[in-house]
Amino acid sequence: xxEFNDNEIAxxxxxxxxxxxxxxxxDNFLHEFxxxxxxxxxxxxxxxxxxxxxxxxxxxFNLSTLxxxxxxxxxxxxxxxxxxxxxxxxxxxxxxxxxxxxxLAVPASTDGEWTLASPVATRVxxxxxxxxxxxxxxxxxxxxxxxxxxxxVPVSYETTFKF
Amino acid sequence: xxxxxxxxxALGLPWLVQVAFFAAATxxxxxxxxxxxxxxxxxxxxxxxxxxxVVKIEATDQHGQLSGTGFFVDPTGTLYTxxxxxxxxxNVNVLFKxxxxxxxxxxxxxxxxxxxxxxxxxxxxxxxxxxxQLEIATPVVTIGYPxxxxxxPSFGMIAGFDRKCFGGYFPTKHLRVNLPPQRGEGGAPLLNxxxxxxxxxxxxxxxxxxxxxxxxxxxxxRSDYVRFGEPRYGWIGTDVQEANTPVDGSRAVxxxxxxxxxxxxxxxxxxxxxxxxxxxxxxxxxxILEASFFLTAGDAVPITIARGDERITFQxxxxxxxxxxxxxxxxxxLNRAIPLNLQSEPDLTP
Lengths: 163, 350
What we know:
The complex is a heterodimer.
Chain A: H1 6-16, H2 29-42, H3 46-60, H4 63-66, H5 69-87, H6 95-100, H7 133-137, E1 147-148
Chain B: H1 2-50, E1 54-61, E2 64-72, E3 78-82, H2 83-86, E4 90-96, E5 99-109, E6 114-119, E7 139-144, E8 152-165, E9 168-178, E10 189-191, E11 197-204, E12 210-214, H3 215-228, E13 234-235, E14 238-247, E15 250-257, H4 262-266, E16 273-277, E17 280-281, H5 286-293, E18 300-307, E19 310-317, E20 319-320, H6 322-327
């Protein structure tokens, strides 16, 4: 813009005012424009073309659409899925639970052992309830519980009416 | 208008009657609704006043560790409990105010089913009441330590006064109480609504029922201990059976008088009908047990009998009961008082 001042531009316009494009120029103008545009694009390197495409793709999204209702619902579903995966994940076995677990499969005798003598063996486990009433009440005691005394029969009777 | 006026009068009279009825009945309803609250308040008051004198007892016997209940009866740390708790146990400890105190046995009596322990400390004490004032349906409270739980009140009522149960005779009349006993409450005090001890919880009986030794029986044992250092049941040496026909209201007829016994020395004979022993009037043979339990060896007791048309009263000095003789390995010192060893000021209850 510094090469021409206003007078020079006005002089140039006066020279060009009588020039006319060749006949049919405007009829083929749009086609010629697209051809030259494609040629210009094909002269660029491939990476540049890919970069331009990616940029155009990214900027084609409107930020307002990202905060729309469907996007929010999708985000909530994704969070719920992640949380559910964590909740139902298999827990690590606790050390105390293993220590306090009652021995369920210790047989009182060897009658219940599997042997090769019988092809189909059944075994009754000597199970007991995990807690009985006494143990349920002894929530903070360790070791063998004491005997809680309340007799059901008198400790002595009178046999005869002797006095 | 006259007909309408008479109609209003006809309607107005029942309306006034209804108002008067509801006005009169309202205090009754209010009283019936307030009664449970009043009883609940009394039970709560008894629990708050008496629970601090009730202790948990832990000990060891031949079967292992045991846990029961006891209660202080004097401010020097003397307490009652059941024989099954403190009778044959060792390493007896009393849990009192969150601390554990060692206790030693003063006396254990298999016949009555109680034991007396001593903790060397100042203690609160429950007042002693009278079981003779109890009647059927008299409300009572017990405070015990069931299982490994804290002190727990139970509320019930006197259901009966029984001499025998499960085919056997109690040594003295027992209080049958309808309240829910739980394991660990053996030796707990049975209290009236004044907060006085009227019995000692000893045995459970069916569901929500139990037996308690009358406090007079326990006090007899304690009196013996204070006087002689041991329970001293007395006997005079007779065997009594139920007669077919009563004589002066009594069916207790003497069937045997053992040689060399106070009864033989006094002149009692088989066939004599026992009418009264001390202050106890005898109506049937079972009454003998009640009177016999309160005999003390060495004390003279008046015994009235009917022999034919005669009514004779003997003053007989009771001898030591054979069961006591076989139980005692060595004669204890006489007139031994309960040792007093206070480490702090007593805390009287209530």
